[in-house]
Write a structure and sequence with these properties.
Length: 134
C-alpha cells in the first residue's frame, strides 16, 4: 500500500475475450495518476513457478472521484490498466494461485519494475473465471 494505494484485480468478459483489469486507488493528492499510467508488459507470477506475460494494448486510464457525502471534500484518485487473457492463460490461472504481479509506470518517481504481492483472496481470480464461464 505505497502512497496509501490499494490495488484490486478483476476478471471480466468483453464478448468472446477475457480481460484482466488492475485498479489502483489512493486519496493521496500527490499521486498524480494522470501522468503515472502502467506501461509495457505485465508479468503474472503463479504459485507453480510459471509466468504469464501480458502485452500492453494501451487499454488504460484514470479517474478522480469526489466524495460529496462527507462534511469535508475528499477525492479518490484511480488508475486502471486492462489486458487480454488467452484461453490457455485462463486455464493456468484456474489451476494455480496468482502470487505476484510486476509492472512499470510512466512516472519518473516510480522508476523500475514494481512488484505487487498478492496475499489475500488467492482464489478470487479462479472464482471470477468460473463465474464468467472461462
Amino acid at each position: 500500500e505505497k502512497y496509501g494505494m490499494t490495488t484490486s484485480v478483476t476478471i471480466a468478459k468483453n464478448e468472446s475475450q477475457t480481460m484482466i483489469i488492475f485498479w489502483q486507488e489512493t486519496s493521496d493528492k500527490n499521486m498524480n495518476f494522470f501522468n503515472w499510467l502502467w506501461t509495457g508488459k505485465v508479468l503474472l507470477y503463479l504459485e507453480n513457478g510459471e509466468t504469464i506475460t501480458l502485452i500492453d494494448r494501451n487499454m488504460k486510464g484514470q479517474n478522480i472521484l469526489e466524495d460529496t457525502e462527507s462534511s469535508y471534500s475528499s477525492k479518490k484518485y484511480q488508475r486502471f490498466s486492462t489486458y487480454y487473457l488467452t484461453k490457455g492463460e485462463c486455464d493456468k490461472l484456474k489451476k494455480n494461485k496468482l502470487t505476484m504481479v510486476s509492472y512499470q509506470t510512466t512516472s519518473s518517481f516510480e522508476e523500475g519494475t514494481k512488484y505487487l504481492e498478492l496475499q489475500k483472496n488467492h482464489y478470487t481470480i479462479k472464482h471470477q473465471l468460473f463465474a464468467i464461464g472461462k
